[in-house]
């Protein structure tokens, strides 16, 4: 059976409406990151709502022919982004943040807020690699100190994508070569 | 934007290994049901593990070119069916049963066990329609009594698919015509 | 350290308002069952809302000096029963039903509805004993068939309490004597 | 009906064994904080495991006659602290961190790790006040920036308890006086 497509999580603040002018910096970055994720043949996973970074990343991915998965906090179809292909309705509220952390092979945080911080922390707790894109120096310092080997910082979308590529390659190498790692 | 593909959930006991001979009746039904779901252009959602009805339904869907979503109970990639395209790792144990109930537009139960019963009950609690396929008279009587309008019984795969088609049509009609229903 | 007090779960439909006349049969039973649970020195665990069986059981337990735990579906203090001492706000919606099933040593279902059915099924899935009190013949037949050794039926509160006592004694005997059971 | 006792959450790294010498600074602080919480008549809520800060805080509270609630990640009784009176078995893994954030009126973080960071972030996301006790300057700077009005820093147990007292008083004043706040 052919290998599954890797799932890349993109997290970020939800409050900024994507259609509001002037277009927010994080929304622009998320749009471009979504495009790049689709262009590389990866699946995009976000929080799935119709606002902010999650919406923008999904729109970007769809514009480049990608497939988008949304892990929604609510129990119904109220606030799903139009650009989500596969809405998973969890009804878990913020507890769904841990599903994002577990289901993505690599997490990219675009911008920073309490929800994004929770997702980054849960990913590090689950020993998942995280890339911070355009967050802030306080976040970079704090999370780097928490989990030095897992935390990566990118200054632009290209840098983030380079990190993701490297991390996926390392995971596949590890999966192929490192049977003993499974036993820990 | 084009409409999303409907998500059909297929639930059933996990214990029967799909490769064990003689091939179990529920596994055969799930294989055929998965094929039909893919052939109709619907997405298949299951519990995602590599055993029993969930595995068989995914194999059937893949054999017909479909896309399969697995809502896994565990936090890691331990027991994912090879036939799952999109594994969602919830780490929630049986609490993930409610995600299956919420995320599917229609749920089909193939066979019956405690986990399947939980998923059927949670779907009915969330006011989702359920089709029972090859369960047993006790299950049919019990669940029919719990939620008369939501519970449908099918004797074979063709009957189950006919129910699903009708229920999806009713939901789309309701979504298009029935704004006041949203306000309940 | 002294042994912990056993936690007894009482589940049942939430729709019947406890203050509505004529007083509903299940609410009366839940009130009396709550009293008995407190009188035996057990902790009471319910779904914690201010309606139906869960509210009545908590009121009964409080009237007899007991301690009550409520596992609430919502994220905030909106609809907590006044008779809950310890509200656990899960924000999980119906996924919290599985916490009830896991946290109680024995579950008693008083009456039957979709939510109660989910809790009974999840308890049986987790191999927890369940007592059905004043449900209906369809429920008794269905759940007995699902998990013969775990399902008990009581016709009145006294019978339910007798079952709970016996089941707790068996669990403690098993915990003390049965180390090999832990290894399954 | 008499008011419920406030629930104070104490979070912190789990890795340090409480019985290991030399006794860790965070474990000592958690022991003393647990004592103070019990002495003030508050309920203590922790992650409930038999290690690190959560275990120490529970032992402290029990030594002062308090009541302790543990919100366990696992589905069974495997690693519960002996000092937990009321174990809630969630089976949710790290998704249970959000229950801690929602159920406590105030959260105190003693030390810092990925799990503690997730709990602090989820509390801030839910608009709950948080006190950081003996974490580190990076954590203080980062979380203060995320939610300025909700984040408080204490240098010792006495300072943390003073913060908790003030925050509880403000919540009760707010609950009594501020109906319009509910509507946000």
Characterise the protein shown here.
4 copies of one chain form a homotetramer. Chain A is α/β, with parallel strands linked by helices and 184 residues long. Chain A has one domain (7-171): 3-Layer(aba) Sandwich (Rossmann fold), CATH 3.40.50.450. Helix content of chain A is 42%, strand content 17%. Chain A has 6 helices and 7 strands. The first copy, chain A, has a 7-stranded parallel sheet with strand order 4-3-2-1-5-6-7, with helices on both faces. In chain A, helix 4 (114-125) links the parallel strand 5 and strand 6. In chain A, helix 3 packs across helix 4. The radius of gyration of chain A is 15 Å and the shape is globular. The model of chain A is unreliable at 17-22 and 176-184 (pLDDT under 50). The interface between A and D is medium-sized, with 29 and 29 residues.
Coarse structural class of chain A: alpha/beta
CATH class of chain A: Alpha Beta
Number of strands of chain A: 7
- Percent in helix of chain A: 40-55%
Which series of helices and strands of chain A comes N to C?
Answer: EHEHEEHEHEHEH
Contiguous uncertain segments of 5+ residues of chain A:
17-22, 176-184
> What assembly state would you assign to the polypeptide chains in this entry?
homotetramer
Radius of gyration over C-alpha positions of chain A, nearest whole angstrom: 15 Å
Q: How many DSSP H or I helices of chain A?
A: 6
Number of domains of chain A: 1
CATH topology label of chain A: Rossmann fold
Main beta-sheet strand count, sense and barrel state of chain A: 7 strands, parallel
């Amino acid at each position: 059976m052919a290998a599954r497509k890797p799932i890349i999580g993109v997290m970020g603040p939800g409050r900024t409406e994507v259609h509001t002018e002037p277009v927010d910096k994080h929304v622009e970055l998320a749009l471009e990151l979504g495009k790049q994720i689709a262009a590389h043949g990866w699946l995009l996973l976000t929080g799935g709502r119709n606002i902010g970074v999650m919406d923008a990343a999904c729109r970007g991915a769809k514009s480049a022919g990608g497939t988008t998965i949304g892990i929604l906090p609510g129990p119904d179809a109220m606030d799903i982004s139009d650009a989500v292909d596969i809405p998973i309705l969890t009804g878990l509220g913020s507890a769904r943040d841990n599903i994002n952390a577990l289901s993505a092979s690599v997490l990219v945080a675009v911008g920073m807020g309490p929800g994004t911080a929770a997702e980054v922390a849960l990913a590090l707790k689950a020993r998942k690699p995280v890339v911070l894109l355009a967050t802030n120096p306080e976040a970079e310092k704090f999370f780097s100190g928490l989990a030095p080997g897992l935390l990566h910082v990118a200054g632009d979308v290209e840098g983030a994508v380079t990190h993701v590529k490297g991390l996926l390659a390392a995971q596949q190498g590890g999966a192929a070569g490192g049977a003993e790692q499974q036993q820990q």
